[in-house]
Amino acid sequence: MTFRARHLLGIEHLAPLEITTVLDLADRYVDLNRRTVKQSDVLAGMTQINMFFENSTRTQASFELAGKRLGADVMNMAVAQSSVKKGETLIDTALTLNAMHPDLLVVRHPSSGAVNLLASKVNCAVLNAGDGRHEHPTQALLDALTIRRAKGRIQRLTVAICGDIAHSRVARSNLILLGKMENRIRLIGPPTLMPAGIGEFGVEVYDDMRKGLEGADVVMMLRLQKERMDGGFIPSEREYYHRYGLDAEKLAHAKADAIVMHPGPMNRGVEIDGDLADDINRSVIQDQVEMGVAVRMACMDLLARNLRLERGRKIVGTMV
């Protein structure tokens, strides 16, 4: 399998073939996860530490489950009760953890670039579980797997990403991945929620939901990230839902077989109609959750293989 990365810090540095490698292996883990016995031993003897400096439900739970199903010893670091709350720097925390010789470090942090900094200070493989507005690579990979399984391919599709683009690391990672895989990408939302210079990314930008959804194969909704907003970006949630919330009437402008996605958590009645979110004929939101475990298993498996090879070369080097 072609996957050369030492860490998974973002989609930007992955080649299309490496993305395909992750998705192909994740497909195999989907099959494993649907069996009665879900255990593997590919990470047996390895230690995984999860460090979440931001709240998380889906991502943290799926990383923990993925590690345990692969046979790793998994530790969830309680950041709220850690020395970080006493003023310890991120680098000192990294050096402390590094002295414990973990093999895989899963990190979510509110500051963009924090995970990259941490990766430069440790000897283990680091996986970015979301850093500020920067990236959320495993979310983009699980979205890609969900799309590929629903549509039979991950190339040459028209994908509409709708909502709070400006504050979304999910949108950024998906933009990069979908662009690498030669898809047509449309961004839909109010101008106040579009990043500056977004037109330079080779995407189509719409502030009219119905026009933007015309002929779309995939409709990906995003949450309003109020925790990252420092001003009045929308008049009101009611007005936002009227103009940009996905309902059956707006979805009718997309292709008849278009799928509906959402990374969660959902604000029903704000960015998406609750009935549509639960429509098993259109919504693949629960499929995304299932694919998340398989994709994270695949990523940790591939990084662990590279880590073992690197350590093996160092041992050989010391013997020469």
Within the largest sheet, what's the order of strands?
Answer: 7-6-5-8-9
How large a portion of the residues is in β-strands, by DSSP E? 5-15%
Uncertain stretches of 5 or more adjacent residues: none
The profile of the biggest β sheet is:
5 strands, parallel
Number of strands: 9
Count of helical regions? 11
Task: Write down the overall mean pLDDT.
Answer: 92
- The helical percent reads 40-55%
Distance between the termini: 29 Å
Secondary-structure class? alpha/beta
Sequence of secondary-structure elements = HEHEHEHEHEHEEHEHHEHH
Morphology: globular
Radius of gyration: 20 Å
Topology:
Elements lengths: L15 H18 L13 E6 L5 H12 L3 E5 L12 H9 L5 E6 L4 H6 L5 E7 L5 H15 L6 E5 L6 H12 L3 E5 L15 E3 L2 H5 L4 E4 L15 H8 L3 H4 L7 E3 L12 H4 L7 H35 L1
Parallel strand pairs: 1-2, 1-3, 3-4, 5-6, 5-8, 6-7, 8-9
Helix pairs in contact: 1-5, 1-11, 2-11, 5-6, 5-11
Describe what is shown at a glance:
40% of the residues lie in helices and 14% in strands. The chain is α/β, with parallel strands linked by helices and 320 residues long.
Descriptive terms for the model:
320 residues, alpha/beta, 5-stranded parallel β-sheet, 4-stranded parallel β-sheet, 11 helices, globular
Structural write-up:
It is a single chain. This protein has 320 residues and is an alpha/beta fold. The chain is 40% helix and 14% strand. It contains 11 helices and 9 strands. The protein has a 5-stranded parallel beta sheet with strand order 7-6-5-8-9. Strand 5 (158-162), helix 6 (169-180) and strand 6 (184-188) form a beta-alpha-beta unit. The longest helix is centred in the C-terminal third of the chain and has 35 residues, at 285-319. The radius of gyration is 20 Å and the shape is globular. 44% of the residues are buried.
